[in-house]
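Usage

Read records sequentially. Each one opens with the input sequence:
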Amino acid sequence: MRTKNKVFILVEIAVVLCSMLLVAIPGIAAEQNTQKVYATALEDDYVLGIYGNANEDDTIDMRDLTYVKLIFFGKKPETELADAKYDGKINPLDFVQIKLIIVGK
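and closes with the structure output:
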């Protein structure tokens, strides 16, 4: 009987210690994240994240339309932003969408 009591007490202690640790973690994490970091993005640090900017030159124009057509025909590698219709595939609907973006519709 004493062995069962000892095991039970050890389990209770373990549960209490784990609970205390789980309560303390958010406070520790918040304490470490109090410093503010200021950064300025340079022109070369980003790409215009708009679907249709297929060649990733920060401008949606006829060059993007040409690039998507070349992807469709297997002549260029696919880029993340080439799927202008955002339907998971490069197809002629992307050509139409890029044309609509260019003319402002």
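Summary fields computed downstream for this record:
- The two ends are 80 Å apart (CA to CA).
- The mean pLDDT is 81.
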